[in-house]
Structures are given as C-alpha cells and as structure tokens.
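Researcher: For the record, we're logging two predictions in this thread. I'll number them. Prediction 1 follows.
Model: Prediction 1, sequence and structure:
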Amino acid sequence: MIPRRIEQHIRDRLRHMPGVVLLGPRQIGKTTLARAIADERGEGAVYLDLEEEADRALLADARPWLETQFGKLVVIDEVQRAPDLFSTLRGVIDERRRAGEGAGHFLLLGSANRILLGQSAESLAGRVAYIDMGPIDAEEARSAGLDDLNRLWVRGGFPESLTAPGDTESYRRRLDLIRTYVERDLPFMVPRMPSATISRLWTMLAHGQGGLFNASSLAGSLAISAPTVTSYVDILCDLGLVRRLNPWFANVGKRLVKAPKLYVRDSGLLHALLRLEKLDDILSHPVAGASWEGMVIENIIGAVGDRYDAHFYRTANGAEIDLILVSGGVPEVAIEVKRSTAPSVERGFHLACDDLEIEKRWLIYPGDKSYPKPHGITAMPLVQALEQLVAGTSKPS
C-alpha cells in the first residue's frame, strides 16, 4: 500500500467527529485505506460493502444492527447505494452523543459525490466531515520509491494502474476501469443515460483536454441538447473523473473569459481514452502538453486541499495564467505549466500577473532543479512545488 497523505487527516477527523465521509473515484484506494484504519482496531471495527448482497441485507433494518456495533468503527463502502441509511445514521449518532460517545463511529465511502452529498447533507449536517480523495500524486509516488515522474504521467495515479508490472498491463487496467464506469456506474446513477453517448462525450473531453467548455459545440457533435451535455459533464465531475476549473474574475477593466476549463483529472485515464499506451505514443500526440498541464494542476490542487481556491485567468487580449491559488479572495500564487525542459514564459503570463498584482510566480517544468528566471519567476520541478505547498508555504526556498 502506497502511504497516502490524506490518511492522517481522516484519522484526525475521526478523533473529533462522529463520522467521516470519504469521497473519490472508484479504485482510487478508498477501500484499501479504510480497511487499513479498520484493521488496526481489530475486533473494534467492522467493514461492509454495499455492493455485496449479504452486507446490504444486514442494513435492511439498519438501526437494530447498528446498535449492536456500539463502540466499534463501522466502515460502509459504496454507501450511496443505501440512500435511506442516512436518516438512520443521524439518529444513531445523536443517541451516542447523548451517551457521551461523540466521535469515531462511522467511516462512509462513496464514489458519487453529488448524489451522496445530496442524500447526506441534510441528515448528517454537523455530524460528519467530508474528505475528498484523489489519485496518487508525485510526492506520494516518490515517497513510495516510484521516482519516475514519466511513469506517473503515463499511467496516472490510480494505484492498480501505477503499480502494474508494465505499461501494457497498466493500460489494460485503465481500459477496464473506463468500461466499468460506462457500463455499470453511470447507468446506476442515471438509468436513462446512453452508455455510448457518455463514452463519446468523455473521449471528446479527452481530445479537448484543458479547453474551454462549450456545451453547444459538444451537443452538436453528440446530437443531444446543450443542457443535457452540461448535465452529463456535471456527473463526470461528481464522480471525480473530470475537473471543472473555473476562471478567476477580477475588476481589471478588461474582457475576461467566463467559461470554465475542463480536464480529465487523471492523466492515465486521459491516455487510455485516447488509446495512448506508452510514453512515445503520448509525446507524439497533440495532447501531450495539455496532458502534462492537467497532471500538474491536479497534483497541486490535491496538495493544497482547502487552504486555497484554484482558478485560471484569461483575458480577451491574451493575458493568461494556467493556475491561480487564491486565499481569502486574494490571488497569491500564479503558476505556469510547461512540458519543455528549457521552458520559456509568454508575455501573456507577465501581463496577467501584473493585472492581478501577483508577486509569487512559479513555472512548473519536468526538470529536476529549481532556478530563478526574469520577472520574479521561479522555475521548479513539480515535486518541489508540492513540498512547498504541503508544508503550508507558498514561497520557494
């Protein structure tokens, strides 16, 4: 098991809250992490998987069974498959609070964020902490001895893909995961959603990696309505498969781009959608630069957690920043992403930083050394940027 930085956060919230809801895509490692936490408690924990009929049967009349588990950590996987459970959990949690047992009762795992949050928000408000879990990032991979950043880029951060014995096996595993989503998970969430349509949409988003969202254009290609496209994209975002990066709006007296950018969040899934198996395949494909950009952005957003809001910035006259980290409504860090080992920064980046008066300017590139560049820019490897951000700082050492 590759150690995940989020594990300590989960443990901390379980010490202070009655429950934790861990959200993230299928096969991202939620179950492995939850089982590791439960196994440490031995007989003081119980694990249920609601994709298993026997485990669903235990919760058919949930309250009596849950009352027999008092004092244990109850881990419930794929909890979105039992929408009626949340009101029961509320009652159980409140009873235990009155008994003076206010923390560490439930660890709930789900892969459908919007559905799960909608089901639980009212029932469990103030009773659980919500934590998002993403793919393995560059710093986590390095700490596990996986130092080859190209390997992470090609295969992505899903554990079974990243640790596969070869690129071909990794590629096959990702194709299987995509098929599972298209044929099983998405029909469960939206029974009337045609599998072929969502598969085509996902692939089209991969071809347009990092592009501005244009629902009308996608709708024309798919022969469906623009609102339907928006709804399908929302679902892919809810599943943690697509990132909607919203623009930063500033009163700078210029026309600003208002459409969000869309990224397939995991570079390995992106490459599998485009049928790119190996590094050479990716490097010779037009998506290479956007793929690298998406991986860097996803790694950074995962590292900063809720300490920063993430946006991009673009004006009609070409001023642009790939990623802005905003704290307290103030843009603090401007990040440009380049795949080149000898990167240069366009004039539009300087103009945008001047527009927003951002002093901390980073250029993330695939090299292994940090060095200063003109106009206050620091070029640095991705791992070093993550180290700075995880440490809670925004200024390179």
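Researcher: Logged. Prediction 2.
Model: Prediction 2, sequence and structure:
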Amino acid sequence: MNARQRLLTALDHREPDRVPLDLGSTQITGIHIVAYRKLRRALGLPTTEPELCDSIQQLALPEEDLLQRLQVDTRGLYPLNNHNWGVVEEDAGDHWRYRDEWGITHVRPKQDGLYYSIREVPIPNPTPEVIRRHPWPDMGAAWRIAGLREQADRYRAEGYAVVLKDAFAGIFEFAQRIVGMENILMLMALDERLTSALFDKLLELKLAYWQTALTALGDVVDVVTYADDYGTQRSQLISPAMFRRQIKPHIRQIFALQAQLAPRAKRFFHSDGNVRPLIPDFIEMGVDILNPVQASAVGMNLAELKQEYDQDLVFWGGGVDTQGILPTGTPAQVREDVRRNIKTLAPGGGFVFNTVHNIQADVPPENIIAMWEAWRDFGGYVA
C-alpha cells in the first residue's frame, strides 16, 4: 500500500496498513522554521536553508529528505499568495514590516520575533463604497497556480496523496484582517447589510480562485482545504445562529464549486477551539475532514467525537496536545499522549495523524521524535 492508497483508505473510513501521517501539506499542519532546523540537526540531516511556505507564521516548507525520513504520506500544493509571494521585509527600526497585496501591514520584532502580527488593516472604516473601490487582488489569476500541475503529477507518480491549499484564510477570519476583529464582530451584530457586502466580496474572490485552481488541478488533487476559526478555548467567537445566518451560506457555495470541479477530492475544514455545536452544520455543508481536533478545548473530547461522528467525519489532527504536552512535556508524556489519542481515533479508519495545529518554535526536537516514534509504534493496524 503506497502513501496515497493509505490516505484514501483512511478517508473512506476504512483501516489501511497504518495510520496516515501528515506534516506540512498545509499552513495549519506544519512546523515553525526554528523547530524545523533543530529537528533536521537531531535527525542528522544536512544543514539547509529551507524555503518558507508561510512567511507570516514563519513555517518551513519541509524538504523531501525529511518527509521521506519521517514516512510522511502527504504532499502539499501551495498557490502563490500574500504569505509566500512578494514578501518584502522593510527595516522599521526594532521590527520588520511587510505590507501585503491586500493592503494589510504586518510587523515582526527583530528581537526574538517568531512570526508576523497585523499592525494596520486596510479598511478600518468600511462602507459599501469603500469596499467596492478597494484594490482587491486578482485571486483567479492563473499565475497563482503556476507549476502546481507538474508538482501534482510528480507526487501522484511517486505514490503520494496530494493536498491543495486555499489561497487565503476563510471568509470570517479574513474579514477580521481586512477591517479589524472588533469591527467585524460589531458589524455582524449591528449591520448585516454592510457585513454581507464584505462577505460577498470575499466569496467572489474565493470562487475565482477555486474556479481557476480546480479547472486545472481538479483531477489530480485528493484533498482541498478551507480554513476559518470559530472556536475559543471554551466556546465560540460568534453564536451558532450568527454562523448559520451570515457565514454558512457562503461556505456552502464554495464547497459546491469544489464538488463540481473536483468530485473525487475530499473537503478539509479547519477551525481551532470548541466547534462542537457547529459540527452538524459542517457536515451539512459538505465537510469530509475536520482539523485540527483540539481536544484541549471544552466540548472536544476525542472519544465522544469519535463515537458521535465516526462515519461522518475524518479526524485530521488530534494526534498530540500542542498547547502543553508537546512543547513542555517529557518525551515519555508525549509518547503516552500519542498512544492514547491513536487508540481513540484510529479504529475503523477515518483518522490522519497530525499535531493540533502547527509545531511551534519552542517544541524540542526530542519531543517531535518521541511523537513520531509513538506514531510508528502505535499507528499500525492488525491485518
């Protein structure tokens, strides 16, 4: 069974020879460049200067020698976007500054700066006219997917599963980056017409990207992604009713286009935190895969999720707690957490091993290796 067969079997809710492993196929299943460099040294791999697949989060694009060493089953396609294209860092004194194609200004401290944060949003005082006149980037441009067909064909020929990343964050999350988080939350509560104008524009850009990308790649990708964030550690950022009324109809249109242009590809949906009340809505929209399965959040008990949604959702993530155990636990604690989570999520298939979101800079390499060794030791299925 090759890597692609293994992943497709798991996505079909059947047991392959072992639990599939993902690292770095998306910008939400990756590894910070600081941790990546340390991991390469710990594994005895040559020193390199890895490419950043996400400059904002400072994520390394894992190189092929490391992916093969760790027996990773996935390979990701990264369209050109504001996180990996046209990134020009300006010297701004004690920090680096970067203004992206959307007009968002990001800053990263020079001293121990591990990632970029938003300093200025492009539309702090939105009106329908300002939204209409804003110089929105062309998300349907063919140059954004230049070379991805060749990559996908090569990955397929080598037996790997192919994951196609979205071109920008989900509609709710990206609206926060355009007008500011406080603004979008207030607008959703007080001015749904104005909110709808912004969401409609972002939907238009989403559909333009997926139309271009999947017209060219729909027959060679196995997974397509959508990433938004609705959960907090305890509850949700917005009410389920607000999600259903203002956001769900937009996402449904995106998934419908994905299903039309890539009917065999599975739809991967990311949201951190407690999204338990929204899971039935996700399934109704057409979500096949839930990521990152944040077990440390209220309501996200892995055993309960597996029992309730085992035949409806594939769990991609949930392999190890990344808030506490992976960065600060001992290798033995990491191993036990992985063993327990695999035992819960693996039976019957429907599970892809990955950390709960990206591996951060403070994770010691010995803990990453302990995680991998536990996956290797406990992730096999009995024939």
